[in-house]
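Quick review question:
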């Protein structure tokens, strides 16, 4: 593995970042991840207009407690001017890094000319980067999240290089590249060889990789095989804050340790403890926490059964009774604590998704 990760003047340390996850990476998820070994986390992506619109949501977005650092704020939008204004507000609120989303492949985002759509509009993408860098005025590093292009065409790849190189010239401190195209979404091959090409091309510029990182072994393999300076873990850390500590194990030459059911129960309880004050009451906190709890089923000895039990929960007072049942200590009996490569969670993910 490479040495400690640094983004601009922000010391990150562990070269494994909790990615911005829409609908997931709120304050509660970030703190639980930090308490399990993450050193840098990114808030869920937010629209630039919402950062500028006064109200409860703006206050929630701009609430950065002292114990949530270093933290990145990821912006999505389509207008360079509002992008810059929103970036300035994030920095004033205390975000340590501003991240620009040019990677989201969701259809409703693309339809509004945001996220991955901007990879087909080089001029606007570079205007957005320029606006953000100028608005931040060196008070925080500016980074970008990209895919390797809108599709597999030579023209799309050229636009990728134009945006990346132009962004570096304009003052980007780092970039994260997901080596799938926008049209692929999350299906088909994630081309790690493309990451290797990008890293050779950008040299000392800080480059992070993303995509299909579901275990500590995946993380270490991507860094070793591509030469990237670090990675961002997205779907692989939902319901699995333990992955950050597992990466530390692999980096130290130790087999990663499987979390016990007791550790999973404690992580879920801590998530709830943090979410309730963040969302102001139990009723508002229930839906986002339930979503996380269901994801913990992926790492259960019987993931299909566990998920079936957890999706039935409809009320806050049911939640922990069901968690105690599903993550009972008896499920650890006879299980080895060490995780091997054969324990990758992808099969469990597919089962839980009904595929």
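Suggested answer, residue by residue:
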């Amino acid at each position: 593995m490479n040495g400690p990760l640094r983004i601009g003047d922000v010391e990150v340390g562990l070269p494994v970042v909790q990615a911005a996850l829409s609908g997931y990476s709120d304050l509660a998820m970030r703190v639980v991840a930090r308490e399990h070994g993450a050193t840098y986390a990114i808030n869920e992506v937010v629209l630039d207009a919402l950062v500028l619109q006064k109200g409860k949501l703006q206050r929630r977005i701009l609430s950065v407690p002292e114990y949530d650092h270093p933290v990145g704020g990821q912006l999505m939008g389509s207008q360079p001017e509002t992008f810059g204004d929103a970036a300035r507000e994030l920095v004033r609120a205390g975000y340590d890094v501003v991240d620009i989303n040019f990677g989201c492949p969701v259809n409703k985002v693309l339809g509004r000319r945001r996220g991955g759509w901007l990879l087909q509009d080089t001029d606007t993408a570079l205007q957005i980067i320029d606006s953000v860098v100028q608005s931040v005025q060196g008070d925080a590093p500016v980074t970008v999240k990209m895919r390797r292009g809108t599709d597999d065409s030579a023209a799309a790849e050229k636009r990728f290089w134009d945006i990346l190189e132009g962004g570096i010239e304009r003052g980007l401190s780092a970039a994260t590249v997901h080596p799938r195209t926008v049209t692929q979404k999350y299906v088909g091959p994630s081309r790690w060889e493309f990451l290797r090409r990008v890293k050779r091309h950008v040299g000392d510029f800080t480059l992070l990789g993303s995509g299909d990182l579901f275990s500590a072994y995946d993380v270490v393999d991507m860094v070793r095989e591509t030469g990237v300076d670090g990675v961002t873990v997205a779907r692989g850390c939902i319901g699995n804050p333990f992955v950050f500590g597992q990466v530390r194990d692999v980096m130290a030459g130790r087999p990663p340790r499987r979390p016990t059911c007791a550790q999973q129960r404690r992580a879920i309880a801590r998530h709830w403890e943090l979410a309730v004050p963040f969302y102001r009451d139990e009723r508002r906190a229930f839906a986002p926490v339930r979503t996380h709890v269901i994801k913990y089923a992926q790492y259960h000895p019987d993931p299909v059964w566990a998920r079936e039990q957890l999706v039935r929960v409809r009320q806050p007072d049911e939640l922990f009774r069901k968690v105690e049942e599903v993550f009972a200590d008896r499920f650890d009996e006879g299980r080895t604590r060490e995780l091997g490569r054969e324990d990758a969670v992808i099969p469990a993910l597919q089962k839980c998704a009904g595929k």
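Why it works: The chain has 15 helices and eleven strands. The chain has two domains: 5-251, 261-332.
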